[in-house]
Each structure stands twice: as C-alpha cells, then as structure tokens.
Amino acid sequence: MANNIQPWHDEEGQKEEKSFDYAKRGQWLRAAVLGANDGLLSTASLMMGVGAVRKDVKTMMLTGVAGLVGGACSMAIGEFISVYSQYDIELAQMKREKNMDGKDKLPNPYYAAFASAVTFAIGAGVPLLGAAFVSSYKARLGALVAVVTLALIGFGTLGAYLGKAPIIKSTFRVLIGGWIAMALTFGMTKLVDQIG
C-alpha cells in the first residue's frame, strides 16, 4: 500500500515544483525580455533618427550611449515602482485574509529593477557595437539595421521559448515592430529636419 502511495506523492511534488519554478521565473522574465527589447529598439531608433540628419559616427555613438544610460535608469526606476505597487497590493490583501504563507511568492521589486536595467543595457549595447566600427555612413546604417534585425530575431525567439509562446509568430511580431519603430524614427526625423 505504501509503495502505491509514494509515487503519487512524488509526482505531485514534481508538479508543484515545476509550477513554482515557472511562477518565480515569470517575475523576472517579463522585466528581462521587456528590458532587452526596449534597450535594443529605443537605442537603435535613436541612432537611426540621428543618423537621418547627421552622418558622423561620433554623434550617432553619443546618442546611443545617452540612450543606453538614460533608458536603463528609466527602466529600472519604472519597473521598481510598478512591481513595488503590485507587491504592496498583494501584501495588503494577504494581511486582510490573514494568510501570510505565500509572502515569499510575492514579486521582488529589486530583482525586477535590476533585471530591467541590465537587460536594457545589454539590448542597447547591440546597436552601439554594430555601428561603432563602421566609418562609411550608408554602411553604418546598413550594419545597424542588420545587427538589430538579428538581435530582434534572437530576443523574440528567446522570449517566446522561455514564455512557452509560439516561437515563429512571436518572433515575427517582434521583428516587424522593430522595423516599423526604426523606419518611423528615421523618416520622421528626416522630415522634421527638412521642414526646419
């Protein structure tokens, strides 16, 4: 009888452990994927926008660095505030229900802020590295688009895989969104420069 019961308990334990691991991973996964995509796209778009009106590599690189630092700080602060608000709401609900057993499962605002800042900086570093060593203006823009395209495919695939989402559909959505963001920034900046 005991032998028949034991496998059932083990199976349940494994199911609970897998569920717990996925829930914990979900806390930082959203912040990490968002941070990387935002870093990649916002920095690349800034560089493309400046590249629409300035041909020198120094101006483009300074724009990218400013985008990296400012964006990483902004993402970290925004994520910290957002997750801390969620933490406060869930903790207050637990106190009302007098059920503090699940306190360790609450989202951690410090982890979320750190994950956002680091992944934003990693994402932002991709276009910076892609354009840093190309002196020709047109080749630099081409290299920037090519490197960002590869990174969008990589981040889209990774995010879909970790989040258990359809890989091709999710990656395609990220890729198209990225191309639109860069094209709009380039086009609008060029237009405003010509009008002015």
TrEMBL record:
Q: What's a Pfam family in this record?
A: VIT1
What's the domain of life for this entry? Eukaryota
Give the transmembrane region(s): 65-87, 110-134, 141-162, 174-192
List the GO cellular component terms. vacuolar membrane
Membrane topology term: Multi-pass membrane protein
> Where in the cell does this protein reside?
Vacuole membrane
Could you tell me the Gene Ontology terms of the biological process aspect for this record?
intracellular manganese ion homeostasis
Catalysed conversion reaction: Fe(2+)(in) = Fe(2+)(out)
Q: Which keywords label this protein? A: Ion transport, Iron, Iron transport, Membrane, Transmembrane, Transmembrane helix, Transport, Vacuole
What GO molecular function terms would the record report?
A: iron ion sequestering activity; iron ion transmembrane transporter activity; manganese ion transmembrane transporter activity
Family according to the record: Belongs to the CCC1 family.
Purpose of the protein:
Vacuolar Fe(2+) uptake transporter.
Q: What is this protein called?
A: Vacuolar iron transporter
Q: Which organism is it from?
A: Psophocarpus tetragonolobus
